[in-house]
Every structure is written in structure tokens, then in C-alpha cells.
Amino acid sequence: xxxxxxxxxxxxxxxxxxxxxxxxxxxxxxxxxxxxxxxxxxxxxxxxxxxxxxxxxxxxxxxxxxxxxxxxxxxxxxxxxxxxxxxxxxxxxxxxxxxxxxxxxxxxxxxxxxxxxxxxxxxxxxxxxxxxxxxxxxxxxxxxxxxxxxxxxxxxxxxxxxxxxxxxxxxxxxxxxxxxxxxxxxxxxxxxxxxxxxxxxxxxxxxxxxxxxxxxxxxxxxxxxxxxxxxxxxxxxxxxxxxxxxxxxxxxxxxxxxxxxxxxxxxxxxxxxxxxxxxxxxxxxxxxxxxxxxxxxxxxxxxxxxxxxxxxxxxxxxxxxxxxxxxxxxxxxxxxxxxxxxxxxxxxxxxxxxxxxxxxxxxxxxxxxxxxxxxxxxxxxxxxxxxxxxxxxxxxxxxxxxxxxxxxxxxxxxxxxxxxxxxxxxxxx
Length: 429
Fold this sequence. Notes:
Elements: E1 3-4, H1 7-14, E2 22-30, H2 36-46, E3 55-60, E4 63-68, E5 78-82, H3 89-97, E6 108-114, E7 120-128, H4 134-145, H5 173-191, E8 207-215, H6 216-225, H7 230-246, H8 255-261, E9 265-271, E10 285-291, H9 299-315, H10 318-328, H11 331-341, E11 349-356, E12 361-362, E13 365-373, E14 382-389, E15 392-400, H12 409-423
Parallel strand pairs: 5-6, 9-11, 11-14
Antiparallel strand pairs: 1-4, 2-7, 2-13, 3-4, 6-7, 8-15, 9-10, 12-13, 14-15
Helix pairs in contact: 1-11, 5-10, 6-7, 7-8, 7-9, 7-12
């Protein structure tokens, strides 16, 4: 069965595939590593519940769409990666993000990763952003490693195999108007930025990752203490990390100095899915820019300012307006708009935040941690992703390794979180 691609999918798929546009998760398990055949057999059992994995994107006379991949073989997408003992986690992640996806067929891969540590192995799922957004990739992980396998897709009434069929308009006229104005403001920002941020186009050999961990409770309590959310705590720790990192910048040619010179705008994806659309195939999102507070502000004042900004972002109607616009406007116009909204001219980094189900397992081995593998948009030198899985939270930075001292950003984020917690006001009852 053919499924039409939406304009957002088409924009991501048209981007240079040498760039890191593959996202996913690195799922860590305690136990002895299985054989590749064991993993293959497990995935083959789950594959009927995910027909999307057997489809590839094609362009025909009637536009771009997904269609069954002729000669699909699961073994072409399931591989093994054995690493030397003692390889650090960041080195493992860096090696993974440098690997290309398959040059033909569906653009995804699963790798069994082991050898780097005793009594531990990992399964890494990566998929091109043109085929899945973060919530879509989370749904794939849930089907592959959660609960019991399905014999086939179980669409809801009126829905065919993961196609979104909820109402186009999910808000009133006034909210839709406000959201449409927000989309327009984002386009203007992309065309006429207030500041020219440093732009890079790293090849795979220049990609690198670093990561750190926290607990969901830490972020939740910190956010509530300042009247905000987990996402606000995530962004404030990012504010602290960028402040500490940019303070060491030396000279005009050092990108850190540019980050220190003015408040940093961060591009964040916002899901436009409704409840019950977690399994919808493709990209169902919009983006908003949240400007981090000035580094000169005291932390408590900066936190309050950030919370006000994110509350306005959530209440300005951007999500329902974007959902309606994508469904109603010509595809060519939507593609042009999306390219403007993703312009590196308006924000130097991409920050996303999503979650996985808590109970994921393989052969009885429970997932003990899930590290996100984010994407680096064309022109951006840096992206950061937060992924929650049960009580654990992992934050990862994907960056151009030519960015000075970028390998310290994850540790600086963790330090900033601890410092913010130390000044936190008493948590409300």
C-alpha cells in the first residue's frame, strides 16, 4: 500500500544525506550480548507490527510517497558492531553517528553493539528524520522491545496503518489566528535574523557526541520549584552549560565568543499529534524558537524569564495552526515555509525532548538506559536532545568536533543542573 509523504518528510529527505539526519536511540541492556541471529529472529517476530520498516520513500508522477521496498531483507538492516573493551560510551556513540544509513531501500538500521563493557550490550536504532520524527521513532522502539508482538498492524477506526486521520482543526479561530501569526514570525526570523550565528556543514568524519544522565525527578522538582516544567529545567541547564562553555571563548574567530555575545535562540520541535496518534508515520511537528535568557542575569531571574517564554510558546496556538496549515495549504508552499523555519540563520542549535515507554526489554533483559541520537540540521554546529525512559533521563550533544571544547558540554550541562538545584526555591506541596 502506498502512503503519501507529507511536505515536512520531503524537506528532510531532500537534505544532503552526508549530514547527520539519522536519529534514534541507543538502548542499553544488562547481561551477556545475544548473537546477531537471536536479535534478527526477535525483530522478525515484531516486524509485522511495523510495516513502515519495509517501506521506502520514492518519487513518482503523483508526488512522493512510501511504497513497499522490493526485495526487502531484514538482514540488510540488522548488523553487529563489536568494540574493544574499555571503549568509552561517548566514543561508542560517536562511532555510531558517523556510520551511513543504507544507500538503498528503507533508510534505517539496527545495530547490536557489544564488547565495550563487561556485562552490558546495546541495541541502536537509527532512522532518517525524513521517515520518522522523535515520537515516531519512540513508537518503533515500543513495538520492537515492549510487551508482546502483534500479528499485524491494528489501525483504529478510520485509520490505515499509521496514517494520521484526526481532525484538521483542533482549536478555535482566535487560537488558529495567533498560531498562524507565530508561523509568519518564524519565517521572518529565518529570512532576516537579528544575528548571524556561526554555520558549519560537518562531514561524517567531523561528527562527535557526548552525553550525561539525570533523573526525571531531578528535572521535575527543579522545574516545579520555578513554576515550570521538565523541559524548562532541561533548557535552563543548557543555559548554564552554554554560559560556562562560551566564557572560555577567545577572539572573534572562536564560536564560543559568539555564543557569549548575546542571548542564544534555540529551535525546538513541537509535536502536532493528537492523543492516539503516537503511531502515525512520518513527521508531524512544527518548530518554535525559544531564546535563552541573557547570560548576565542571575539564575533565578533567568529561570523565571525562560518559564514565561515557554508558557507563551505553548499557548500561542502554533501547534494547531501548523497542523491545519500543513493539511490545507499547497505542498510546495509548505515545503518553502519549512525550509525557512529550519534556517540556521535564525538559531544556532536544535534542542528536542521526548520520552520512551518505561518497560522495554529483550530476552528478559530490561533496558537500563536509553541515550538519544539527535540530528544536526544543515548549517548548525550543535544539537542537544533529552530522552526520558522511566525514571532515567539522558541528555546527548551532537556536534561538529571542530567546535572548541564541545566535548565538555554534556559535563557542563550536568554541573549546571546541580548548581540550579542548589538555589532552587522550596518545592510546592
